[in-house]
């Protein structure tokens, strides 16, 4: 089985900052091209785990984090995530990951179209036909010239999904991407995430509270399981 993601020995300890939360993930492996639903109660660490995988959050300890690139090579990034510069991490992130953040994370001074095209600009990719195509599939073509502060939360969420897909990354991460959407648009959005990733052979990890939608769309569940200690959290190990 070819891996899309391999992680070992992750500890993210917020107690050092006065919190009570510890994410303790000895092992996590996801097959390349798999579509995963990260499930668990509020506060169990879904966003935290996604932020580590997306090279945003530096863990307290980490033995290994490897992500598969578009060229098929598994890139070892554990040392860079612990000790590399922000610029190094941003550079790897832009090529390897598309991230639909829970908060949208759109640039307020750029239009919707510019936001969606931004990951392509960063990578120097030519052609913006995919921006139009994604906008059409998500029903946001009429919004391309607006700024994000003139959008509803649900519209922003769809823009964030389009932006995460526009550079066709090998790993797509989505943090509750349908939380603010009505059921029909939520289904369209989940369908696009899945079909775009399947067309590209990309790995998809979606955090969600919507077990029913995850099941209907055939996402493989990766469930939170209590670890030792009342404030230690962990997700079910490898899916290979
Ligand atoms: N910046 C932060 N500083 C300190 N503690 C934090 C911070 N962000 C989150 N936490 C804590 O870390 C824990 C995990 O939070 P996280 O957001 O990963 O949970 P989640 O499973 O994604 O929750 P939800 O389903 O509500 O989005 C929680 O106990 C939360 O209070």
TrEMBL record:
InterPro entries (alphabetical): AAA+_ATPase, ABC_transporter-like_ATP-bd, ABC_transporter-like_CS, ABC_transpr_LolD-like, P-loop_NTPase
Keyword Nucleotide-binding: yes
CC per GO annotation: plasma membrane
Gene Ontology BP terms: lipoprotein localization to outer membrane; protein localization to outer membrane
One Pfam family hit: ABC_tran
Sample GO molecular function, one term: ATP hydrolysis activity
Source lineage: Bacteria, Pseudomonadati, Pseudomonadota, Alphaproteobacteria, Rhodospirillales
Name of protein: Putative ABC transport system ATP-binding protein
Family recorded in the similarity comment: Belongs to the ABC transporter superfamily.
Residue stretches making up the ABC transporter domain: 5-237
Keywords, comma-separated and alphabetical: ATP-binding, Nucleotide-binding
């Amino acid at each position: 089985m070819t891996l899309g993601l391999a992680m070992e020995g992750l500890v993210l300890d917020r107690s050092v900052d006065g919190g009570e939360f510890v994410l303790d993930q000895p092992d996590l492996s996801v097959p390349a091209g798999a579509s995963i639903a990260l499930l668990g109660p509020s506060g169990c660490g879904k966003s935290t785990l996604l932020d580590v995988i997306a090279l945003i959050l530096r863990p307290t300890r980490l033995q290994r984090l490897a992500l598969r690139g578009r060229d098929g090579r598994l890139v070892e990034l554990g040392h860079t995530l612990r000790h590399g510069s922000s610029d190094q991490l941003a550079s790897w992130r832009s090529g390897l990951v598309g991230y639909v953040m829970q908060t949208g994370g759109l640039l307020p001074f750029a239009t919707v179209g510019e936001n969606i095209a931004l990951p392509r600009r960063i990578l120097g990719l030519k052609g913006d036909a995919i921006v139009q195509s994604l906008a059409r599939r998500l029903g946001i073509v009429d919004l391309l010239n607006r700024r994000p502060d003139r959008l509803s939360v649900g519209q922003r969420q769809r823009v964030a999904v389009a932006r995460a897909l526009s550079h066709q990354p090998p790993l797509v991460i989505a943090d509750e991407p349908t939380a603010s959407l009505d059921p029909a648009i939520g289904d369209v959005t989940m369908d696009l995430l899945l079909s775009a990733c399947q067309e590209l052979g990309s790995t998809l990890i979606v955090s969600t509270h919507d077990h029913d939608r995850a099941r209907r769309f055939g996402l493989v569940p990766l469930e939170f399981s209590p670890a030792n200690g009342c404030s230690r959290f962990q997700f079910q190990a490898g899916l290979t």
